[in-house]
Write a structure and sequence with these properties.
Layout (H helix, E strand, L loop, with lengths): L6 H9 L5 H14 L6 E4 L1 H16 L11 E5 L26 H8 L3 E6 L38 H8 L5 E6 L5 H7 L2 E4 L19 E6 L2 H11 L29 E5 L9 H16 L3 E5 L4 H19 L17 H12 L2 H14 L4 H25 L2 E5 L15 H5 L6 H6 L3 E8 L5 E8 L4 H15 L11
Parallel strand pairs: 2-3, 2-4, 7-8, 7-9
Antiparallel strand pairs: 1-3, 4-6, 5-6, 5-10, 9-11, 10-11
The structure holds glutamine (GLN).
């Protein structure tokens, strides 16, 4: 009864008193401890979870009507500051950081009674697409190829958030997405991952990577669950000046899977001979389903697509280099003593940060330095505006854009990528939505020949999350994916 539960199903079990929150929470805590091999969790917050479950059960026993998230075991990427719970951003430099405050989004979930099982492993400071950059070691994808027994990457940077839901160690999770880190791991693990419009969700209390791109969002088993969580975490927050004043919406209640008369754009620049045939195949199937269900498929052009990745890899490191300057051994986390202040800074940062983070700080400070600022940073900002105008133009004629989420499926952890740029190519389809601030979702479509999940992406105009969720639901209901990995790790 307690296998692969969704938020909707858990809430029904609780409301009908078929299971108590304490039973469900204890069951999931046991699953977490049985799955150490996957390395999904950095911290398990067992005491907090049990306490919250008892509180839910008290509310139920008093016959209070409980909300959809009340009593539902969730877990958060270790980038969200959680009061009194270790928050590391998967970095050595924060390996002893226990916040005295709670991020707005996680606090919104807790206010609704959600239960926090713990904090999930990710790439260090959310920089990466494999989870291999974590100080705590890589997360292992619960999926295996049917051609070999090798451990696979779960994608990144929210790899723990995706692997934990796919392995059913929690019911749903929160991740963050700066260039694809919710959608790419969701696609690699057969799940739904949603990046909201920039500003829909508060960034307050989320460890900053690239502030003009970062957004938190859900990774879940269904589109329904994504709409429940999105609704819970959204809304204006006085503590984040970039959070939007748009009124919050009832995404779950208003979910409607009709795509009749909607226009869906297929960007011709995303078509490439390099795209594996099976990904192309599911993309074609998606177009067919949408058109059979009443949508009109139209070819569109996003001419600046090619420039998105280079622009992202200038803007994101530039912002990261500035954001990460706060980790100096004085204010937070690790301090390595030196002969004098400068040496203390140097030793702390050399020891505290991993290679990928150092690479980003170096790229970022380089493109922001005088002489290169105009040549790189300003140019990348101009390119970003052009990318945004491409989308603005496209959304004059279509309601949504439909593309693959990634150019590949999950690959072996042992696959040595000597060239970091090769890794950056993972983000080719996801980065444009971040640069333009648009909402985007990845939904599972099917398995590759080797038995690995393949996801497809939908993008809509800013604050059109309801349309995004509706189209995603239409595809979900037509495809009926509903496949989970074999539990080999037990
Ligand atoms: N893979 C991208 C990067 O390394 C995206 C990361 C993210 O979205 N957090 O920058």
């Amino acid at each position: 009864m307690l296998e692969n539960l969704t938020i909707e199903q858990t809430s029904k079990l609780l409301n009908s008193k078929k299971a108590s929150a304490l039973e469900i929470t204890s069951h999931y805590l046991k699953k977490v401890s049985d799955a150490n091999k996957l390395n999904c969790f950095i911290t398990v917050s067992e005491d907090h979870a049990i306490k919250a479950a008892i509180q839910t059960d008290n509310r139920i026993s008093k016959n209070k009507k409980i909300g959809l998230l009340d009593g539902v075991p969730l877990a958060y990427k270790d980038l969200f500051c959680t009061n009194e719970i270790l928050t590391t951003a998967s970095s050595k430099i924060l390996s002893n950081f226990i916040p005295t405050y709670e991020s707005t989004v996680t606090s919104n979930c807790q206010k609704e009674g959600a239960i926090v099982l713990g904090k999930l492993n990710c790439d260090e400071f959310a920089m990466g697409s494999t989870n291999k950059t974590s100080f705590y070691g890589p997360v292992i994808n619960p999926w295996k190829s049917n051609e070999s027994d090798e451990d696979l990457v779960p994608g990144g940077s929210s790899g723990g958030s995706a692997a934990s839901v796919a392995a059913d160690l929690c019911i749903a999770s929160l991740g963050t997405d700066t260039g694809g880190s919710i959608r790419q791991p969701a696609s690699f693990t057969g799940l739904v991952g949603l990046k909201p419009s920039y500003g829909r969700v508060s960034r307050w209390g989320v460890v900053a990577f690239a502030s003009s791109l970062d957004q938190a969002g859900p990774i879940c088993k269904t589109v329904e669950d994504a709409s429940i969580l999105l609704e819970a975490i959204s809304g204006h927050d006085k503590k984040d000046s970039t959070s939007s004043i748009e009124p919050n919406e009832h995404f779950y209640k208003n979910l409607n899977s009709s795509v009749k008369d909607l226009k869906i754009g297929i960007p011709k620049e995303y078509l490439s001979d390099d795209l594996p045939e099976e990904i192309q195949g599911y993309w074609n199937e998606g177009k067919k389903i949408l058109s059979e269900n009443g949508a009109e498929i139209v070819e569109i052009s996003l001419p600046s697509t090619k420039t998105a990745l280079p622009a992202y890899y200038i803007i994101a490191p530039a912002e990261a280099s500035s954001n990460l300057s706060r980790y100096d051994g004085v204010r937070y986390g690790l301090r390595v003593k030196g002969e004098n202040l400068t040496e203390m800074y140097e030793l702390t940062r050399s020891e505290g940060f991993g290679d990928e983070v150092k690479r980003r700080i170096m790229m970022g400070t380089y493109v922001l330095s005088s002489g290169y600022y105009d040549a790189y940073y300003i140019k990348a900002q101009k390119v970003r505006s052009i990318i945004k105008s491409d989308f603005d133009l496209a959304f004059k004629s279509v309601d949504a854009i439909f593309t693959p989420t990634t150019p590949n499926t999950a690959f072996p952890i042992s696959k040595e990528e000597l060239d970091p740029v090769q890794n950056y190519l993972n983000d080719i389809f996801t980065v444009p939505a971040n640069l333009a601030g648009l909402p985007a979702i990845s939904i599972p479509f099917g398995l590759s020949k080797s038995g690995l999940p393949i996801g497809m992406q939908l993008i809509t105009n800013t604050f059109k999350e309801q349309t995004l969720l509706n189209i995603a639901k239409n595809l979900q209901d037509s495809i009926n994916f509903n496949i989970y990995p074999n539990q080999w790790w037990k």
